[in-house]
Every structure is written in structure tokens, then in C-alpha cells.
Amino acid sequence: MEQRINGHTRLYALIGSPVGHSGSPAMYNYSFAKLGLDCAYLAFDISVEKTKDAIEAFRTLNVGGFNITMPDKTETARLVDRLSPAAEMVGACNTVVVEEDGTMTGHMTDGTGFVRNLKEHGVEVKGQKIVLLGTGGAATAIAVQTALDGVDEIAIFNRKDEFYANGEKTVEKIKKAVPGIQSVSINDLDDKDALKAAVDRCDILVNATRAGMSPMEDVMPVPEELLRPELAVADVVYNPRETLLIRKAKEKGCRAAVPGIGMLLWQGAAAFELFTGQEMPAKEVMEKFFS
Questions:
Q1: Of 277, 287, 271, 288, which Cα lies nearest the Cα of 93?
Q2: Which residues are catalytic?
Q3: What are the Cα distances from residue 48, in Å, to 18, 53, 69, 71?
Q4: Pick from 9, 71, 135, 194: most CB atoms within 10 A?
């Protein structure tokens, strides 16, 4: 690192709170060095109240771009100059690129990373029917990106809790922005008949709930008997690396069982390409930082 830092080194960063646990600095700095790019990446603990101050500082310092983690994603989307179609629909961004004219464009790469993770496991989304469990930030990004990428149908399921309204808003946004989609809906996850009917006719089942995550490692988001060989199953949970859902999908012979760790890798790789115009050495990064 010391040998690469000079008077021309371009700064990239992560903001959010907390960020001390983040693997992003190691991942990005390794990739910069591997590709011989004169760049450096740092993490800054920024509360949501300080987001505006941080962004103004980045404008002054002429940083190349920055990533955003919770709780600053929504506030950042309000403060940048423009948003990508996905970020505008989600209402949040996790990546900001500083353009040549000094303006800032906010992007949302979570959905992009999810779609790329599927592709790496031989699963395409175009023309497919998806059942999506959850209405949180990751679920919203996945719904938006798969809609933009040409899925035929999205059936969202969530319990009627405080997040259900977010799913209803997502449905309306997709209907307005992607009028060509055949169907997008939201249903109560506790409606077992509706869930079974949707999973029985879908091509891809996605878990974007906390089921499978500590302390819910033994929780299946759907009944095991709904899994079948024709189904591709994907999880956004990456700790543990193999959730109960993914393990059961393998046991049932599903055509794909896609763990969540790849989404984490590929959303970072998408941001790296937005920053630099080059592809991250993703396979090496996976082996070095995600194994």
C-alpha cells in the first residue's frame, strides 16, 4: 500500500455506521493493487445525521466514488445529483460515482450482484417467474433489478408486519416503471395456499428474509415439500455460508442452489467496475476474502 500512495492517488471510500467490520477496504485495495490502479479505499464511520457533511467533504476532496452501507443509503440517495433507474426505484443507493464534471450519480448494485450471482450458477432471470420472500432493502433491490432485467412475473410474499407496506410500494413502482412486466404482486406469507400455488408455478424461489440467519439457522422460509427439481433456489443470507434452505434445495435435487455469499461479492464487483471501468479480479477476491 505504502508504495502505491503518491500525490495522484485517487481516494474511494465506504460510509455507514458501523463500518469497522467491513471487508470492503481489503477487497478493493487488493483489487486496485492487482490491476495496478493508483487508487486507495478507506472506511469512514458516518451516522445518518452526518451523511450530508461527508458527501460535501467528498465533493471538496474530489474522491473518485464511494460505497454506502446502513443507515446512510436512503439519505445519500436524497443528496446526490442523479440516480440510476434502479436506485431511483429503490429510493436508496449503495454506490456513488463522481463524474468528470464533479456531479455524483447514485447506483444500487445489490440487485445487479444478485442477478450476476444467479448467472454464475447457470440461472438467467429474463422471461422467468420469481417468488420473492421478504420486503426489506435486499428484497426491494432484487425485485427492482429483476423487473428491469426482464422477468415475466414477480410474486412477493411477506408477513403483514410493518414492512408489508414497503412491498406494496415496490409493487406499484415496478408497475409504473416497467409496464411490460406480465405480473407483479404481494401476498401474505402466512397464506399457505397462495404461497404453494405461487411456488408450484415459479422458476426461481428467492429468500430475502432473516430465515436461516443466526439465531434462526434452523428455520425454513418455506415448507420443504415445496422444493422440486425444476426449481432454482437462491438465498441472500450468507452467514452461515450454506443455509438450511440451500442445503434442502441440494437434497431435493433443485436445478440450482445459490448461496448468498456470491451476491455480496458481485455487488462489490459491480461497484468496482462503476468506479474504474475495469472488472474486479472476482474469482481471486472470492478465494482470498470470502472463503
A1: 271
A2: 73
A3: 11, 10, 10, 6
A4: 135
